[in-house]
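Limitations
The structure tokens in this dataset are predictions for the assembled complex, not deposited experimental models. Users should treat interface geometry with appropriate caution, especially where small molecules or nucleic acid strands are included. An illustrative entry is reproduced here so readers can see what is and is not provided.
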Amino acid sequence: MPQVTYIEPDGHRVTLGVEIGTSVMRGAMDAGVSGIEALCGGNCACATCHCYVDGAWLEQLPPPAVDERLMLENVAAERRSTSRLSCQLTVTAALDGLIVQFPDRQS
Amino acid sequence: MGSQAPIVIVGAGQAGVQIAESLRQQGYDGGLLLVGEEPHPPYQRPPLSKKWLTEPGASQALSLRGPEALSRRRIELRLDTRVLAIDRAGSRLQLAGGEELRYGQLALATGARPRTLSLPGAQLEGVLALRTIGDSLRIGAAIRRCAAEQRPLVVIGGGFIGLEVAAGARKLGAEVTVLEGLPRLMSRVAAPIVSEAFERVHRAHGVNLVLGAQVAELVGHEGRVQAVRCADGREFPAGAVVVGIGVAADDALAAAAGLACERGIVVDECARSSDPAIVAAGDCSARRLADGRLLRLESVHNAVEQGQSAAAALMGHERPFRSTPWFWSDQYDVKLQMVGLSHGFDQVVTRGDLERPAFSAFYFRAGRLLAVDSLSRVQDHMKSKRLLDAGLSPTPAQAADANFDLQSVLQQARPATADGA
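Predicted assembly:
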């Protein structure tokens, strides 16, 4: 199972096995990682699963679709070039080792 | 907290989970027990009428929090447990089966139940309503049977649930009739221009949409529903019927315990019931506003917002409801996102393409923005949410001008910072 490291807003790191085909958001919610709300449950409707993707991994990810890009323009925390919505990131074998960080606020 | 007995939260849905998690976030260190009536661990309901209806998967995919998430926060979960009564004087809950459960403090997050039709034939087999995972699976199966037998699915009620089910049924290839009693869809929450857009979308997808339909009777054969008959004599054949006519707050437990209830457990802005030692949050509650009106909201956002307030109240703090309510609905490829409450509006302006539809409707009262409904206009929704949260308003003319950047209202309202583009 690919390992994903989540960095919580206070800097605490949680590394988890996340099943291939599930979202990076799902992995965090199942394990109770702090710093994510994911209120719409993965519909790309609320932007409360915002994360910063560790630089090296950014280019391994498919680029955001239009809706995700538009949602990202108005996230509650600082928007960075590494910002993504974790519900739109699907875990694959190639993402083993992925590191994402949750911002200080989601809403 | 001093007390040995745990804080008990009755109801393990969105609001119940939020109260539990917020208690831990706010530093509560004592026992915490989440009691759920359903056999399933906490799960999300919104997908039950959307994606999960047409593509059901493992119930784990609906999970709100995994078991690990709950144990990490030392939240004990007790499922399949029905609470029969609250003994306020003795700080005890009476459970089905005779057991008693002591509580230090109590939170109610008992949710809501679908309203039922009180009409002849309402009890026939094949008449379904949607609330739980089981309901969604049953409706999905009924839709597939309708499609296979080429019998129409009849949906009674043109609100969110009814229309989402209709969209799902079309996706699965069933013929669909929607019967709405009022002259337009979603009339309780949306302006006519939004209703009309959804009427066009559903008709374009082949839904037989009947407005102003007064359902009088469900007609059966050998105990199974066959048709829906209206007061004017029209009869609509039905392989199955989904009743989506709203929900009623599940406040029976609270009412029996003597808490003030009026269309729900009456709570203040801080989620406290008429007994300040007992809090309530989510679909089961009715919030008393400053002007005396009662506001009932049925949404994830409301459950989360009130859940946070309820947890704070249990900790002895006041945390009033603060952020602007929002909702969403998926129907076909239209993403509807709503923010704010449009009640009392005196002006609506739109931006975008009404025909596609990809537009937003901005509701104003005396020139101030109240609410925005966005149909496949994600950017308008997100910006409007920030404006409403900040108490800011564009002018109606600015809102109607697609070239006007709504964000500039935010930027003008605060000193320029290096906030980026």
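Some entries come with short summary sentences. For this one: The domain at 7-113+248-314 of chain B is CATH 3.50.50.60 (FAD/NAD(P)-binding domain).
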